[in-house]
Amino acid sequence: MTATAEPWQKAEIAGPTKALVITKPEVVVAMIKKAKRPILIVGHEATEKEEAELMDYAIKLAKIGKIPLVATAHIVGKFVKKGFQPAASMPAVDIANRLVDPNWKGLDGEGQYDLAMLMGITYYMEWVIFSALKHFGGPNLKTISLDRYYHPHASWSFPNMSVENWVQNLKTIIEKLGE
């Protein structure tokens, strides 16, 4: 896989601490299995990217990993039409604010999340969300970008990659997580 670990949004400077590059999808599987309280946040682009059927991958990931899924923007109805009920629906910035709030006990009241995975959110918005989580999310919160562009503010991120490689990585994560 030919991949680069440069921000897709060139004008922004990430700072000295940058995301570790996910070179193998098994890294994501291991992090999900290790996490006590993971959460998956899915944005509107999951319904717009026909090339990858991102929404279907998000549903499979949430079901197989038993991960609460937060649908952002207006897409909760599209999940419901597919027969999947997200754990919550709220704006992306709202869930990000809750994740940095040390007093928030999660969607179910059981405590803070230790792994936040984001996908399908507009790149520049995801950039600032990851930046907020990196700087204010606390030492126990790890973040993963599941999009096909490198996000330097995440803890872990795929590098910039082709749609084909990205889709194959998502399929591998779902397959290995189900084992």
Descriptive report:
- With 179 residues, this protein is an alpha/beta fold.
- The chain has one domain (20-177): Rossmann fold (3-Layer(aba) Sandwich), CATH 3.40.50.1220.
- The chain has helices at residues 26-34, 54-65, 76-81, 92-100, 123-136, 163-177, and strands at 20-21, 38-42, 69-71, 88-89, 115-119, 142-145, 156-157.
- It has a 7-stranded parallel sheet with strand order 1-7-6-5-2-3-4, with helices on both faces.
- Strand 3, helix 3 (76-81) and strand 4 form a beta-alpha-beta unit.
- Helix 1 packs across helix 6 (163-177), helix 2 (54-65) packs parallel to helix 6 and helix 4 packs parallel to helix 5.
- The longest helix has 15 residues, at 163-177.
Fold topology:
Blueprint: E1 20-21, H1 26-34, E2 38-42, H2 54-65, E3 69-71, H3 76-81, E4 88-89, H4 92-100, E5 115-119, H5 123-136, E6 142-145, E7 156-157, H6 163-177
Helix pairs in contact: 1-6, 2-6, 4-5
